[in-house]
Amino acid sequence: MLNDLIHKFLAAPAHFLMIDVLPFIAVLSILVFVHESGHYIVARLCGVKVEKFSIGFGKEIFGWTNKAGTRWKISWLPFGGYVQMFGDTDPASAGHTDEKKTPLTAEEKKVAFYSQSIGKRSLIVAAGPAVNFIFAIFILTGLYTFVGQPYTPPVVGKLIVGSPAEKAGIKPDDKILYLNDTKITRFQDMVQFVSVNLDKPVTVKLVHSAGKGKWSGKVVVLHVTPALIHDKDRFGFESERGQLGIYAPPKGSAMIKHTFGSAFIAANEDVWDITAGTLQAIGQMIEGTRSTSELGGILRIGAYAGDFAQQGLVSLISFAAFLSVNLGLINILPVPMLDGGHLAFYAMEKARGKPPSERFQEYALRVGLTFILGIMLFATWNDLMQLKVFSYLKHLIF
User: Fold this and answer.
1) How many domains in the chain?
2) What is the C-alpha separation between 398 and 390, in angstroms, rounded?
């Protein structure tokens, strides 16, 4: 019996065994450190004392205390982290400690988070997500300066027979200028736009080929509705995307090195595209035009982290930038328990002239926690089902 179980385990699906935990933990820990550093740095600049800076949750593995009295520590559960400020007994509360339960002296109030002005508290809370966006821009700028940015000209290679592009009148060697009002400067821009746009009609502005790498000066306007494609990657994760049916040109792909200035501009554009694309995808899930099966959790992120790590450092850096933007974006959403939820509380405090009642905050935080846990469980369920983990366990046991 034992030998049979061992044999079945070793014969597990390759996509399940190839989930590389170490790259995932490494990337996530860096991004959490970046996020919490934003809170920490701005808190210290505002004169607030920080008691704990933790990477991970749970029991401390090791740590040290600096001269400012902050305990820096690494904890057992590496799926997050927190900064706990002076006078705040609960890191999730964003400083709404009841002073009656925790009486402070006048000197202590000067360095307590909840004693600060609304403006300072808002800056401290917003700094975490903001630094995630800044970090993504920073590493992409470095990547595009020293290694280069992938570039393929926005020229039509071959067309899939019977594809929406062919039916609309797009021809090989045509140069794509605009999709709707979005300017297309790289073939990658076109792929990203159509993928997120799904099967919604698109207005295409292009110039037809005049041969020998030249194009006519006349701009042609065509209308095309992409096909909706259901993909499944090698891990088994499912996704939906729009497809025009255009292949990239066989030649012309390269890594274009930028000056620091142009790399900074390109990095900002990419971060904006990631942000807009993520928000569009979330909106599509809410309205029902995109399947919620694409909502992935820790297992999916871990699988992709390992996959990008195998492709090389450049791919892993690009993936880290993508994750950093998404981490910042998620945290800025106005959901209680997240940074955006605390900013919503401060906006209410500013409008009312006093903070929301403790009872209201308590119930709001409970709702926020329930929502977050629900999303996490749903995303993890998606991962488990698409990885066919339950089928594998059934096969393993029976």
Assistant:
1) 2
2) 12
Distance CA 166, CA 238 (A): 27
Please, are residues 271 and 132 in contact by the beta-carbon 8 Å criterion? no
Say which range, 74-88, 179-193, 231-245, has the weakest mean pLDDT.
Answer: 231-245
For residue 51, being part of any structural domain is answered with: no
In a domain, 293, yes or no: no
- Residues classed as catalytic: 36
* 53 within domain boundaries: no
Largest CA distance in the chain: 80
Nearest 10 degrees: CA dihedral of 128, 129, 134, 140?
120
**Crossing angle for the helix pair 313-332 and 260-287, to the nearest 10 degrees:** 50
31-73 pLDDT tens trace? 999 999 999 999 999 999 999 999 988 899 999 999 989 999 9
Identify which of 93, 91, 81, 80 has the alpha carbon closest to the alpha carbon of residue 51.
91
Q: How many Å apart are CA 85 and CA 186, to the nearest integer? A: 46
In this structure, are 13 and 128 located in the same domain?
Answer: yes
pLDDT of 301 > 90? The answer is no
Residue 204 included in any domain: yes
Buried b (16+ CB within 10 A) or exposed e, 360-393: ebeebbeebeeebeeeeeebbebbeebbebeebe
- pLDDT-derived band at 239 (thresholds 50, 70, 90) equals confident
Q: Is the pTM of this model over 0.90?
A: no
State the Cα–Cα distance between residues 344 and 351, nearest whole angstrom.
11
Nearest CA to 368 among 333, 325, 316?
333
The residue from 238, 256, 274 where one domain ends is 256
**How big is the CA angle at 165 (ends 164 and 168), to the nearest 5 degrees?**
85
